[in-house]
Amino acid sequence: MRRAFLALIRRELRLGWRVGGGGAAALVFFLALVVLVPFGVGPDLGLTRRIGPAMLWIGALLAALLGLDRLLQADQDDGSLDVMTGAVLPLELILFAKALAHWLSAVLPLIVAAPLLAVMLGLEAAAVPPLLLALLIGSPALVFLGLIGAGLTVGLRRGGLLQAVLILPFTIPVLIFGVAAAGGATAPMGVLVGLSLGAAVLGPVAAAAGIRLGRS
Amino acid sequence: MALTDLANPTRFLAFVARALPVLAAATTLAGLCAAYLVAGVPDDYQQGATVRIMFIHVPFAWLSMGCWVLMSLSALGTLVWRHPLADVAQKAAAPIGAAFTFLCLVTGSLWGRPMWGTWWQWDARLTSVLVLFLLYLAVLALWQAIEEPARAARAVAVLTLVGLVNIPVIKFSVDYWNTLHQPASVLRLGGTTLDAAYLVPLLVSALAFTLLFATLHMAAMRNEVLSRRLRTMLLMAARRGVA
Predict the structure, then answer these.
(1) ipTM, 2 decimals?
(2) What predicted TM-score, i.e. pTM, was given to this entire model?
(3) Which of A67, A70, A58, A50 lies closest to A34 in space, CA to CA?
C-alpha cells in the first residue's frame, strides 16, 4: 500500500513537471502576479511592504487552485481514475496523494521563491521567516480544500470557474490566519496547523464522496 | 402522519394543499401581532427609534443559520436515508436562505451606520455571515451547473455538509473575537440580558419570520415537485417523438 502511494506521488510529480512546464509555469505566474501589484497600487514601497504578505498569500491561493481542476479531470477523461479506484489504494488516499503531489509541484516552488519576491515588495528581512513558515504550514489547507471543489465538479464541462466559486468561501479562514501568522504571532500559527490538518482529512473524504456519488 | 408517508409526491402535494393555507394564515396573524408589539416598544435610551431594526435583523440572522442547518439535515436525508423529498427540501430552502442572509446583512448595515458610524466593518461576525452568504450562492451555482437533479442533489449535499463548519464559527465568533458586533444577548448561558419589553416582541417577530420561512419553503417545495414532474413529462414526450 505504501509502495502504491509513493508510486502515485511519483507519477503525479512527473506529470506535473513534464506537462505544460509544471513548477516553472507556476513560478512565472507567481512572479507576474507580484509584478502586477506595484502597477495596481502605485510603486510605493511603504504600501507594498504592508500588503506584501497578503499578496503572497493570494498568489499562493490562486496557484493552488489554478491547476487543480485538471488534476482530476484529465484522469477522469482518459479513465485512469477508474483504474486507480480499482487498485489497492482507497479513493481517499489516491486523492490525498494527488493533492500532496500538486502541492509539491505547484505550491512548494512558490514558497521557495517567496523570499525573493518579498524583498522586491520591500518586506524587511526579519519579516520573511515567519511569512515563509506561515505559507509552508497553511498552503496545504488551500490545496486540500480545493480538492473538494475538484471532486464535486469532476465530469462537468465548465468546472473551473464553478470550482473556484465553491471553494473560495472556505479559504477565507486560512487567509485570515495566514496573514495574521505572517506577522510573527504564534497563536494564529497554531490555528493554521489545525486548519491544514483538518483540511487534509476533510478534503480527500469529501472529494471522494463527491466522486463516488457522481458515478452512481 | 410519518415523514415516510410524505415520500410519495402525490401525497405530499395533497398535504401541501391542506397545510399551506393554514401556514399562510398563521404567518399573517403572527406578523400582525409582531407589527403591533413592535410599534408599541419604547425607544431605547441610547439608540432611539433605530432599535426597532433589531426586530427584523435578529430573526433574519437566526433564520439564515437555521436554514443552513435545515439544508444540512436534508443533505443527510439525501445521502443517508435517500428520502426522495430531501433534495427537494434542500433545493427549495437555498434561495430563501440566501435572501434571508442578504436581508440580514442589509438590515445590519442600515443599523450599523447610525450606531457604529459605518456601513461595513471586517468584524468576525459580519465577515462570517458574509461567508455564509457566499456559501448559499455557491450552493445555488452548483444546482445550476449539474443538469440531472439526482446527481446535482448528491453533489450539493456534500457541499452543504462541508459548509456546516461555518455555522458554529458564526455563532461563537462574537464570543471569541470581541471586535465590533456585540456578544450574544438572547441565547446565552445564564439567561438573556434583554429587557422583557424588547424580548417579547422580538420572540413574536422571530416566530412570525419562522412561519414566513416555513410558508415560503413549503410553496417552493411544491413548485420544485411540479417542475420536476414537468421535466419528466417533457423528457417522456421527447422520447415518444423520437420513437
Answers:
(1) 0.74
(2) 0.82
(3) A58
